[in-house]
Amino acid sequence: MSGALQAELQCPSCAGQCLYDPAPQALVCQSCGTPRRLETEDDARAGHEYPFDPDTDTSEAPAQIDATVHRCETCGGTVTFVGPSLSTRCAYCDGPVVLADGDRAYEPMALIPFRVPDSDAQKAALAWVARRLAAPRDLAGIVAKGRVAGIYVPFWTFDSKEAVQYWAMYTTRHNKKTRTHKVQGGMTIRFDDLLVPASPHVTPLIRDGILHDFQPANLRPYRAGYLAGFAAEQHHQSVHEGLAANEDDKDLLIRNHIKDDINRSGVHNIGYQAATTGIHYRRILLPVWILHYSYKGRAKKVVVCGMRGRTFGERPFSTWKLAGYAAALSSATVAFGLFWGAAGLL
User: Fold this and answer.
1) Is 29 helix (H, G, I), strand (E, B) or coil?
2) How far is CA 45 from CA 60, 154, 191, 223, in A?
3) Distance separating alpha carbons of residues 277 and 159, to the nearest angstrom
4) Residues 246 and 60 sit within 8 Å (Cβ to Cβ)
5) Are strands 231-232 and 68-72 parallel, antiparallel or unpaired?
6) All residues at 6 or more sequence positions from 290 whose CB lies less than 8 Å from its CB, including other chains
7) Alpha carbon separation from 67 to 103, 104, 113, 212 (Å, rounded)
8) Model-level pTM greater than 0.70?
9) What confidence score (pLDDT) does residue 117 get?
10) Which of the pair, 90 or 168, is modelled with greater confidence?
11) How far, in Å, CA of 227 to CA of 242, rounded?
12) Among 75, 135, 243, 260, which residue's Cβ finds the most Cβ atoms within 10 Å?
């Protein structure tokens, strides 16, 4: 750890070690409890987006990370700890982690700090479990014993302007006859702050856990102090690689825009060409809590957004409860049918 980073994590009152605490949103000394805010005059600039021309720009080279690097022996994920390592488990999969050689990565441009403390994340996970229908009776007790881990996960944001020329078909029915029509057209689509995972370890569950709460206004300039006490996966993708990772999502969005533009049912065989301009990007880190638990030998997780506490998860079902719900629904359907039939005889 460099001298500058060590000084940032050192308490100015007693020289103790400081860790970031989401409750006061400050670095807090672990010895004397003195809090220290990390806001700067440059905070308003954290949302700045950087232009990129894929035909002329070359990606910057990654730099050596000034942090403790661990590699998971189970999923292969690499996480870093700013300051002392607080865990020997992987935040992504709960597998064991071991010290690894120094890592090279691209420095994030901004982040959103944790705002949800670990105790609130645990409560949110338990509340989510309590609302699950047909959950096994012992599930809440098992989840309550689960380990919650906080991690900053890497994302991109992308802006672009798409000049789209499309062609497609749609079907109509009239007097039991089906006709196929050809249609073509053009439109301009502007994408703003498309949020793209910058790591294969950011699963759809993790993405859904934080996607809806992302607000660019909450971005802060990257400072290592925000990471003190948390794991973080650094950025290892070039901008070209990030754009490639966004292709499938962008393709789906463009096709949905085309369907809306045609405004007909039965649209199919969509084809298009898109000229992309005005690309802007950010490399950012976003906070997430992941609660790991095991049910009957199967590893599962509940994801809690570190920004506002929105919760998504994996859960088992009780076969007895599912059978009970099915029987109740079947009984209700039969009773409704008998009532309707009786009413028709009156």
Assistant:
1) strand
2) 21, 19, 21, 13
3) 9
4) no
5) unpaired
6) 91, 92, 148, 149, 151, 206, 301, 302, 303, 304
7) 9, 11, 18, 30
8) yes
9) 95
10) 168
11) 23
12) 243
Handedness of CA 297, 299, 304, 310 (dihedral sign): negative
Distance, CA of 216 to CA of 280 (rounded, Å): 14
Q: For residue 76, what pLDDT band results from cuts at 50, 70 and 90?
A: confident
Domain ranges of the chain: 1-37, 47-334
* Closest-CA residue to 96 (of 104, 109, 85, 107): 85
What pLDDT does residue 322 have?
A: 47
149-177 average pLDDT score: 93
The pLDDT value given to residue 135: 80
Region 238-262 average pLDDT: 95
Beta bridge mates, 323: none
Task: Please state, in angstroms and rounded to a whole number, the distance separating the CA atoms of residues 86 and 83.
Answer: 9
Whether 8 contacts 38, CB under 8 Å: no
Selection from 116, 115, 112 nearest residue 125 by Cα = 116
DSSP tag of 194 = E
Q: How far apart are CA 316 and CA 302, in angstroms?
A: 12
The rounded Cα 222 to chain-centroid distance in angstroms is 18
Q: Which residues pair with 150 in a beta bridge?
A: 289
Please answer whether residues 304 and 212 qualify as being in contact, where contact means their C-beta atoms are separated by less than 8 angstroms.
no
User: How far is CA 224 from its chain centroid?
Assistant: 21
The upper half-sphere exposure of residue 346, i.e. CA atoms within 13 Å in the direction of its Cβ, equals 6
* Token pair belonging to 47: 């949302």
Residue 128 corresponds to which amino acid? W
How many CA atoms, within 13 angstroms, populate the side-chain half-sphere of residue 189? 23
Exposed, middle or buried: residue 15 (CB in 10 Å: 0-12, 13-18, 19+)?
A: exposed
Closest CA to 179 of 263, 255, 265: 265
Task: Give 132-143 as a DSSP string.
Answer: -TT--TTHHHHH
- Residue that is written with structure tokens 């976003």 in the block: 286
